[in-house]
Structures are given as C-alpha cells and as structure tokens.
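Revision sheet: structure tokens.
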Amino acid sequence: MTGTLDIAAVDAMDAADPLRAFRERFALADGLIYLDGNSLGAASLAAFAELETAAREEWGRDLIKSWNTAGWFQLPLQLGDSVGRLIGAAAGQTVVCDTTSLNIYKALHAAVALRPGRKVIVAEAGSFPTDLYVAEGVISTLPGMELRLEGIHAPKIEDLIDESVAAVLVNHVNYKSGELRNMAALTKKAHEAGALVVWDLCHSAGALPVDLDGANVDFAVGCTYKYLNGGPGSPAFVYAARRHHDNIVQPLSGWWGHARPFAFEHRYAPGDGMVRFLCGTQPILSLRALKGALDVWETVDMAVLRKKSIALTDLFIRLVEDKCGRYGVVLETPREAARRGSQVSFAHEGSYEIMQALIERGVIGDFRAPSTMRFGFTPLYVGYRDVFEAVNVLEEILRTEAWRDVRYAVRGAVT
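Predicted:
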C-alpha cells in the first residue's frame, strides 16, 4: 500500500467493500469504533430475534414440548455443522457444546487414549492460559504423563515432537501476538512422529479460512463468542476427524453422550460419532442466540473475508507506524500478512493507560499484560474509516500524553 492516504481515499475503500452491507446486521452504537471482536463479537440482530422466539414462544408458551417441536435436542449437532462449514469440516465432524476449556479436556484425553504407551503432551508456553491449565489437569489424571512446552523445553514446537509424544495442543493464531501457525505443516510433522494434534481455533474461526479436513487434522476446539459473534459465554465447539470416531473415548461421560439417553440405563454406552463429545444438558437459549449469529455467515465468502482482514490490518499497521511510531509503539504482530490472523498488537510502556484512554474516547481494543495493546478486526462490521479514525485518536493520546492522566492508571477489570 503506497501513496498518501486521506479520508476520501479511505471512504472509497469502504464504498468498494463487498462486505460493507453486513455491518447493518449488527447492533453497533453510533460513534463507537469496536476493535475488540477478538475478545467478544458484536451482537447480531438475528441473534436477538432467535432469543426472543426461543424465550417467549418456545420456552414461555410451549415449555417442555419444545425439546421436540423446536428441535432443541438436535441443536448441538445442527450448529456443529454450521460451524464446520467455516472451519473446513465435512458434516458430522463438529459439535457445539460446553466450553472451550471442557472441550480441550475432552479432546486431549481422546487423543492420548488413541496413542497408548506414549507419555508426553506438547504445548506452547505462550499459549492462552486455559490451554495450559487444562493440559496440566489432563496430566494429573494420567500417571507418568509429562508436559513439554515450546519456549521452555525447546525454542520451536517442532523440536519437541518425537515418538514419545501422544498429543500436541497448539493454537492456530496466538491470542497475544496474532501470529498464525502453518496448520498443514505442523500436523504433518506430528503425524510423521505418530502423534495426534489438537488445534485451538479460538482466534481463527470466523477470522480466516480454515481447512481442517484438508490439513488432515485430528481434533480441534474453539469458542463462538469472538469472531463468530455468538454472545458472552456462548457454547464452544469440538471437531474430530471421522477416521477417529469409532475409537473416541473421553472421560466426561454424561447422559447426552449416551447411545440411548432416554433409556436411563445404569451403565454408560457411548453414542455414535460426535455425540460422544456431549456431556450434560446444553444451554438452549445460548445455542439459539448462536444460531442467529451463524445465520449471518450463510452467505459469507471466507476468501473475501480474509482479503478484507488483511487489508484492514495492513492499513492499521501502516497508519500506526506512520503517525505514532515516534511515540514508542512497537509492532508485536508479524508484518507479513500470511503469518498473522485478524488482529494487530503493539507494545508500549503505557499500554494499559493508553487503552483506557482509547476506550474512554470510543475506540475499544484491549490490553494484555505486561505491555500489549491488542486490536481485533472483524471484517463483517469493521470498516476502513474505523481504522483511520482509531489511529487518529491513538495519535492524539500519544502526542498530548493524555494517557499519563492518573485516572487511567487505576487497574481494575480490563476489557
């Protein structure tokens, strides 16, 4: 991207944007620049409509009948296929249920059980903390199991994978830096050593094209409340390649995963396919909100989405460095577009205070300790003018040193 960029040029980019009409399908306040969809996606009008119907008609009027008449019982598998379309999974390999943490627990146990005799799980020291905490929990239930970490036991995760490794737990996009892993290459490396891979897609599902089947992935998990816009605490998803279905064993053997849940038998018998990853009764209202959110994606071309994501993040990096580089901001995200997801992170000594000042002025990003300002770009509702104006606000805060105001230094809950 070269040449002088002014507001007219940015508006022309918005006018030519093939995704521009999608913004009208989200409930975004006027004057707000929302660059935190990588933490919590914006609410869609379709999600509101689904919640209204589910609450007032199906629950309020039809009560228990709605498990059958409204298809509540089938929602985890139905929505799983909707998510599957966005992550390159053929039908019947993805189920929406529970939380990301619970699904990591289930998927890691399933992967380790498929590799008996192997005693190592590999993960990243720089992973999102829940992945590491859950991996520790899995290891605590398996005598002799150990955890090897990229960044502690070796510089690169590939160097930790050998014939002793049962499973590799890895993030497709790093939550802090936004760096994107090569899914196909790392999966192939693990398979050559006889290991299985569990991919965490929290920061890539809905942000960029994913091809789980094409990359020969074994298992994947992810949340739906970030780029997929399912709402706060919306159910997560888990994927398992069809070749593993007959041999999946996971320890959370609740009644929804039973082959005959309404037979009320005394012993557990696992259901077929992805039903095996279900545990207990699922949160129907949250599932219905997610249905509305996923309906928005039915006509989204993921290649077009990725092209806009790259353009937005390229523009943001260029403008921040041109306008704010003199004030000490340092890019933490890979500069090469092919190596990053749909977020950009900058470091600064006053990152926390700067972010609070941005939020007060209507530019919503987030902070990650110790010094990262993180900005997420959701192409369905973020425009090029948003980027331009956000950088102008950031430049003003840095130039005037407004971020040094003592009220911004009071640390509490961070967005």
